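fyi for ur records
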Amino acid sequence: MLDKNGIAKRIAKEVKDGYYVNLGIGIPTLVANFVREDIEVEFQSENGVLGMGPFPFEGEEDADIINAGKQTITTLPGASFFDSSTSFSMIRGKHVDLTILGAMEVAENGDIANWKIPGKMVKGMGGAMDLVASAENIIVAMMHTNKRGASKLLKKCSLPLTGVGCVTKIVTNLAVLEVKDNTFHLIERAPGVTVEEIQAATEGTLIINGEIPEMDIPS
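which gave:
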């Protein structure tokens, strides 16, 4: 199965030349490290950055340049900084081609829960609701099961929802799945992972058509 970097590498294959991409907190932030060098991509962070690059090497961090998760980042030539109102105008105006988010749960109809666990203190939803309400192409990066081994790909989310029916694709440590017709469709499996293992780890309805290929993960 994949680690977090492996998930990010697989998602990086979904990033196309000329895309404007929003990276959510967690695994999604790693995607910028693995995008092909022969394409031009603009990574956007809702705190007001356009043109994010890979994470800085140790000792080269600039504490004034951070993403929405307060991680230090690098910027590429031509990067720009702006206020939150401009950033959210970009998001709400549907000027982002791809949104990559983490999640605690995803339902088979594309609902996503990624902002709150009842009883735990959180600062708020942040930009998550705007992103899922405005984006038309949302890929979720997540572990297939929680720490107890229970599935995070469910028939119905149990946690407070962030968005309804909005997720298009999911990349986990076990598989790549598309959300279509209110079901999960298995597209690829992680190296060394069997279809039976993915079935056992998926609570929601899983559609399997034909031979399921292994992911081709760039080295």
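Residues 113 and 160 are 6 Å apart (CA to CA). thats all i got for now
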